[in-house]
Every structure is written in structure tokens, then in C-alpha cells.
Amino acid sequence: MPNQFSASAPGKVNLHLGVGEARADGYHDLVTVFQAVDQREVVRLVVDDAAASEGESVVSGITTHWMLEGELSEQIDTPSNLAWRAVDAAVEAHRAAFTPVALPKVRIEVDKAIFVAGGMAGGSADAAASLVAASAYLEHYSGTALDQDKLTELAKNLGADVPFALMGGNALGTGRGDDLVEMLGRGEFWWVFVNPRVAINTGEAFGVLDDLRHDNPALVPHLDTTTVAQALTSSDPEVLAGALHNDLQAAALEMRPQLTELIRAGEAEALAAIVSGSGPTVAVLCRDSDHAHEVRDALAGRFSGYELIAAHGPAAGATLL
Ligand code: C5P
Fold it and tell me: Of 71, 123, 128, 214, which has the maximum CB count within 10 A?
């Protein structure tokens, strides 16, 4: 009798992030290329003995284990947490589709290995891993799991980056960034991710970009991904270095000016440096594993108090453990 159901999910970097106009629903149309990286969140649903009555959340709470030194503290143990919402959404969808069964309460444990509010979709990875773990939990108690299409639909409702955390690999994202098509890629790419520990709210970053564009017509949307698609198939990090682009970088630099120095240092030490997603994490592209570890140590010496990790992509999407 298993007493826990576990899954992991990867962080991501946007190799290309083109941001179109703001839409009526508050979102922006994106043309983005994601790469999943092997820095993974782990979510465990640990079964409590007490059975949950129908209609109420099966989740009794969330415990977080920080895998990184000096993480930003954040209110995590709340029903608004994406991992909690993902488990509730999976249970609700299962109750709607199949004959409801008695389910025991679970406590969610999250091993956080991805920076919080860093632009690497750590919260989205928690949600994706929670969906996969919740599907195994539901299958164990009812005999029926949620299929992949249902998980993808639930993922979209939880957030724009959640479907990619479920899928992994390399992918082109359009719409809100959640209409995904797998992209061909060859070889692996090594990165150093540096987080200056000054969180950026994703919604605010999009708003700042809108404001900047209002005053500066040169900040046009970059919606062509041909160069980065070719670079991905080249398996050559030098080629990929020349193809990286992020429209949201201008907003991140406006909000956190200290990122300029970090990007310059990353460019001096390695092949390229770019803001990851909405930031503030800076992704530094390296030649290979050895180079990534050298670059990590060099940047750690220069930027004390910042968090640094070396990781490679592409990596698998959310996986049952
Ligand atoms: O979907 P998610 O909750 O991650 O998005 C956070 C915020 O980022 C949204 O509320 C929206 O303001 C902004 N966003 C956007 N366009 C996207 C994705 C996110 O404007 N494609």
C-alpha cells in the first residue's frame, strides 16, 4: 500500500521570447521557444489517514524543503499555492468524469530546487509535478487515471507555463505560450543560472514592457524563431549563443538595473547571457559541463549573495517517480 505519490518536473529557460500586443484578457500573445533544464522540483503527495469528505479539498497542507541556500522566504502553505490548486483541480476533474470514490487526505511536500519567482517557472513545475502525482493517487484509489489530454487542459488553466513543465524537451509556444509544438533539437546545452534574489512579478514585467514600448517604438515584438530553430538543430552552443533573444529583457532591466552588470559579467565569462523569462534570473550559456562549472565558480566569486546553479537542457517533462 503506497503511502505517497511522487513526481518531478523541470525548470525552463526561454531561448526566444517574443511578446506581441496586450490582449483583452490581460495576457499577451507570445512566440517563444522553451528549453526544459534538469534542475527539477519534486512533489510528494503523502497520504494522511483521515478520509476527506466529498466536496472539500483533499489537501491538508504544504511543506516545503529548500534545496537552495538562502531562498527568499515566501508564504507557501496556502490553498492559493499552485501545487495545492493543481491537486484540487485534478480531483475535481476526476470526480466530474468518473464515479466519485472516498479519497484520503494528502499532505503536499515540495522539494524546491528552482529559484522562487525567478523566471524559470519553478511554481509551474510544482503544478505540473502535482498533476502527475495526483493522477497516480487518483488511479490508486479509483482504478482510473486522468489521461494526458485532461492533464494538459488542467495545466493550461493553472498558468501559461504549466503545460510546458508537463511536456519538457524543446518546444515552440504560441498563444499565451501554452499552445505547444515539440521542436527538433540535437545535443545538450549547458547553462549557469544566476538569481540576484530580487523577485520579479511576471504580470508586472509584461506591464512595464507595454509602458516602455509606448515611449520607445524601437522595442518591436520579435516573433520570428527561424534562427533559434536552426541553432537548436546545430547542437553548437556558439550558434545558439547568437540566436538567443528575449523581448522581456528590457522590462527586467528597467525593473532591476543591477541585472545589467550581471549580464555583462556572464557575457565576458561565457558565450552569452540573457534574462530568463520575465527574470530576474540570468541564463548564461556555456560550452559544456566543465565550462559551466568554471563559469559558475567565477560568477559566484564576483556576486556574493546571489544564487547560482549549473544545469543542462533539454530535460524530460513531469515524470512519475
Ligand atoms: O499565467 P501566469 O499566471 O503565469 O501569468 C502571470 C501573469 O503574467 C498574467 O496574469 C499576465 O499578466 C502575464 N502574462 C501575460 N502574457 C502571457 C503570460 C503571462 O501578459 N502570455
Answer: 128
State the catalytic residue, choosing from 12, 105, 111, 247.
Answer: 12
**pLDDT single digits (tens) 262-279:** 999 999 999 999 999 999
Residues 6 or more apart in contact with residue 158 via CB below 8 angstroms? 82, 85, 86, 89, 124, 127, 131
Phi, psi of 143 (to 5 degrees): 90, -5
Residue with CA closest to ligand 1 atom 9: 203
CB-CB contact of 57 with 88 (8 Å): yes
From residue 39, how far is each of 55, 68, 97, 224 by CA, in Å? Answer: 35, 11, 34, 28
Tell me, yes or no, whether 320 lies in a domain.
no
pLDDT digits (tens, 9 = 90+) for 79-103: 889 999 999 999 999 999 999 898 9
Do 144 and 227 have their domain in common?
no
- How many domains, the chain? 2
Minimal CA–CA distance to 284: which of 317, 310, 305? 310
Q: Do both 176 and 76 map to the same domain?
A: yes
The CATH number given to whatever domain includes residue 266 is: 3.30.70.890
- Say yes or no: CB of residue 206 within 6 Å of ligand 1: yes
Q: Please work out whether the CB of residue 27 comes within 6 Å of at least one atom of ligand 1.
A: yes
The verdict on 166 and 299 lying in the same domain is: no
Count of CB atoms situated within 10 Å of the CB of 180: 20
Based on its alpha-carbon atoms, the radius of gyration of the chain, rounded to whole angstroms, reads: 20
Q: How far apart are CA 18 and CA 172, in angstroms?
A: 11
